């Protein structure tokens, strides 16, 4: 795209991502019930919360894959709720996303998955895109021999890492990681944590991650927020998460079955 | 049951009719919007020649055996049937003409359309449906690729372009089937049969068949894509989408077959 005016640069005080009172219900089931949070450029925020509390829905709402019922989502100060067509494409160009289920294109070999954004989005030629893909695969601990396999030929953890390589391949400004270390062995999980930290620190990307893995959360997060019953009930620096003074957070991070959060199971 | 009051019973009935009608118009509306969007994206860049080519091979080349076999046997049976039928009023000489006109106007496009609906429409719905439920379509949008342009437009174009070619080949094979039976079994003179085939054939017979074919190709791809794209809920949803794609495409093919015939030949 050719434009004569320089790209809009927001002043540094504007949050990269600003959510105000976001609501989303599926039929009767209220999932997001007024979520508000501001994320500064270059900040890494981790959202924790029980299974099924709507963490993935939150990420998808920001991406516009799910339309929120109400509330406002600003990206670089620009309202994105209700954006359509080409304007939405421009906004989405800033994002990279690792899906919880990896969501690899199973009709394409691994390297084309990783290079997809480079080839289709940025119009890079296939040769150089392949080299770049192999380089990104190496960063997530996968050798060049994986490049020509198809996603169905990979283990779950390998698929996850390919998804991660795809999310960071075109060096997006904002990266969402939905459970990046789930299904990985502890050593590889730590490699991935380092990689996420590196993306944020070196590329200056803004990161919003979801994880159940508290070690990972402490390592990658500047700030941690807890989602419970559709709201962010606690937000604070990562260092404070183990002595937050909030009974919900305490129960969650220490993994206790008894406490204010009750699970709907029959004993 | 205490709804014996005829007024409430009548109102219940009206409500039921209303609900059914609303659901129907809701569906028609959705399909129309989908079609309009799809056509719009067929005509505006970026285009994806690679995917288009792949779909053209998939629809055109790989459907040849099934279309060839169907039309071959239809041409053969047509010659046999019309011979025995026409013998009743001593018009056996018309066999060659009947075979070629029925093949080009009707049997070629309809049989090829129905066979391809089962083969290609089903696989499109299954593939796109699987992409939907495994979040691959969401992943496309986060990689700055419009799913309509990347997935749907190439399939619609390939359907509308390749079916006429398939039908042309099918017409020839069908006429050849009639020729085989005519000369080897019914004792026609080969030169005579071929001359009879050409004698009364008009350009419009072939052209109308090809217009039908193109329309059917579009319908097949549209139904496959629409049902796949809107599928919900795992393997069962994908199965349902596949079935709906084949059934709705087959019915629409028969309806449009009538409409186009009316358009071309009704005086
Ligand atoms: N497309 C949808 N239609 C209907 N309900 C949905 C849809 N997507 C999510 N939900 C519901 O929203 C709730 C939150 O789902 P979500 O996937 O965000 O959970 P989560 O917090 O990511 O959980 P987990 O940690 O297990 O991944 C769930 O109860 C789910 O049933
Ligand atoms: Mg989730």
UniProtKB/TrEMBL annotation, chain A:
Pfam family, one: ABC_tran
Keyword Transcription carried by entry: no
SMART domains: AAA (SM00382)
All copies of domain ABC transporter, residue ranges: 17-254
Domain of life of the native organism: Bacteria
Gene3D superfamilies the UniProt entry points to: P-loop containing nucleotide triphosphate hydrolases
One of the record's GO molecular function terms: ATP hydrolysis activity
Keywords from the named record: ATP-binding, Nucleotide-binding, Transport
Keyword Glycoprotein tagged: no
Alphabetized PANTHER family for the sequence: PROTEIN TRIGALACTOSYLDIACYLGLYCEROL 3, CHLOROPLASTIC
Protein name: Phospholipid/cholesterol/gamma-HCH transport system ATP-binding protein
UniProtKB/TrEMBL annotation, chain B:
Assigned keywords, A-Z: Cell inner membrane, Cell membrane, Membrane, Transmembrane, Transmembrane helix, Transport
Membrane topology annotation: Multi-pass membrane protein
Coiled coil residues, start to end: none
GO cellular component: ATP-binding cassette (ABC) transporter complex
GO molecular function, one term: phospholipid transporter activity
InterPro entries: ABC_MlaE_roteobac, Permease_MalE
Protein name: Phospholipid/cholesterol/gamma-HCH transport system permease protein
Membrane-spanning segments: 6-24, 60-80, 156-181, 206-229, 241-260
Main location: membrane
Species of origin: Novispirillum itersonii (Aquaspirillum itersonii)
């Amino acid at each position: 795209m050719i434009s004569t005016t320089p790209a809009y640069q927001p002043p540094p005080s504007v949050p990269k991502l600003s959510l105000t009172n976001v609501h989303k219900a599926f039929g009767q089931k209220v999932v997001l019930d007024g979520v508000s949070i501001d994320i500064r450029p270059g900040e890494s925020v981790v959202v924790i919360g029980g299974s099924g509390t709507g963490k993935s829905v939150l990420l998808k709402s920001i991406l516009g894959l799910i339309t929120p019922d109400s509330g406002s989502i600003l990206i670089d100060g620009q309202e994105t709720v209700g954006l359509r067509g080409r304007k939405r494409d421009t906004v989405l160009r800033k994002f990279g996303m690792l899906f919880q289920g990896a969501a690899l294109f199973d009709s394409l070999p691994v390297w084309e998955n990783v290079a997809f954004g480079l080839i289709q989005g940025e119009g890079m030629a296939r040769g150089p895109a392949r080299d770049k893909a192999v380089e990104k695969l190496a960063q997530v601990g996968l050798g060049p021999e994986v490049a020509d396999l198809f996603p169905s030929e990979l283990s779950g953890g390998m698929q996850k890492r390919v998804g991660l390589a795809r999310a960071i391949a075109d060096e997006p400004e904002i990266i969402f990681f939905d459970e990046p270390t789930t299904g990985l062995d502890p050593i590889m999980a730590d490699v991935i944590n380092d990689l996420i930290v590196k993306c944020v620190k070196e590329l200056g990307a803004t990161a919003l991650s979801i994880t159940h893995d508290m070690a990972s959360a402490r390592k990658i997060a500047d700030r941690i927020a807890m989602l419970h019953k559709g709201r962010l009930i606690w937000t604070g620096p990562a260092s404070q998460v183990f002595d937050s003074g909030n009974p919900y957070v305490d129960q969650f991070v220490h993994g206790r079955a008894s406490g204010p959060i009750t699970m709907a199971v029959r004993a | 049951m205490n709804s014996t009051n005829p007024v409430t019973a009548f109102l219940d009935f009206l409500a039921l009719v209303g609900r059914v009608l609303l659901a129907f118009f809701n569906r028609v509306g959705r399909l129309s919007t989908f079609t309009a969007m799809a056509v719009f994206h067929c005509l505006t860049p970026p285009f994806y020649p690679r995917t288009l080519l792949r779909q053209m091979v998939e629809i055109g080349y790989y459907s040849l055996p099934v279309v060839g076999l169907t039309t071959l046997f239809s041409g053969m049976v047509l010659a046999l049937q019309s011979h025995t039928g026409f013998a009743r009023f001593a018009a056996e000489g018309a066999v060659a003409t009947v075979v070629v006109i029925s093949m080009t106007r009707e049997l070629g496009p309809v049989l090829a359309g129905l066979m391809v609906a089962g083969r290609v429409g089903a696989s499109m719905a299954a593939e796109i449906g699987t992409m939907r439920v495994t979040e691959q379509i969401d992943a496309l949008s986060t990689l700055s690729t419009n799913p309509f342009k990347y997935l749907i437009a190439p399939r619609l174009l390939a359907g509308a372009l390749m079916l006429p070619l398939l039908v042309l080949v099918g017409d020839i094979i069908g006429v050849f089937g009639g020729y085989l039976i005519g000369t080897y079994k019914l004792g026609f003179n080969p030169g005579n049969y071929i001359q009879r085939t050409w004698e009364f054939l008009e350009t419009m017979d072939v052209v109308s068949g090809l217009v039908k074919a193109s329309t059917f190709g579009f319908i097949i791809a549209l139904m496959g894509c629409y049902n796949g794209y809107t599928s919900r809920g795992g393997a069962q949803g994908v199965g349902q989408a596949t079935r709906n794609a084949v059934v709705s495409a087959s019915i629409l093919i028969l309806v449009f077959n009538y409409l186009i015939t009316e358009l071309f030949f009704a005086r």
